[in-house]
Design brief:
By secondary structure, the chain is of the alpha+beta class. It has one domain: GMP Synthetase, Chain A, domain 3 (2-Layer Sandwich), CATH 3.30.300.20. Strands 1-2-3 form a 3-stranded mixed β-sheet, covered by helices on one side. β1 and β2 form a beta hairpin. α2 runs antiparallel to α4. The N and C termini lie far apart (about 65 Å).
């Protein structure tokens, strides 16, 4: 006996293909995953996490992220010879690829 309006689930707990497609086309914000990853990494690195601001510009299949931190934390985010900045960009690009978009990270002073 099944109630009206209640979705049935397979014994494995997986949704049917058409139901999964409906969930994938939901109201997701493009670039939310790379933005969240960038905010997480930046707040973990800096001394003043309240000063971390990430601005997002969306394009066709790409996202441009601008990271703003306090001037005192700029050296921590960039790192020696830019290695920390490059590592941040790599991780954010990987998170964006998982979401199906390209990401570009600019560190703004």
């Amino acid at each position: 006996m099944s109630d009206a309006g209640v979705d049935e689930v397979d014994l494995d707990g997986e949704l049917e293909d058409d139901e999964a497609e409906e969930l994938d086309d939901g109201n997701r914000v493009v670039g939310s995953v790379p933005r969240g990853v960038l905010e997480y990494l930046a707040t973990a690195i800096v001394d003043d996490p309240d000063s971390v601001v990430v601005e997002v510009d969306e394009g066709r299949g790409s996202v441009s992220l601008r990271l703003n931190v306090s001037p005192d934390d700029m050296g921590r985010v960039i790192g020696r010879r830019g290695r920390t900045a490059q590592a941040i960009r790599t991780v954010v690009r990987a998170a964006a690829a998982k979401e199906g978009v390209e990401a570009h990270v600019d560190i703004v002073d």
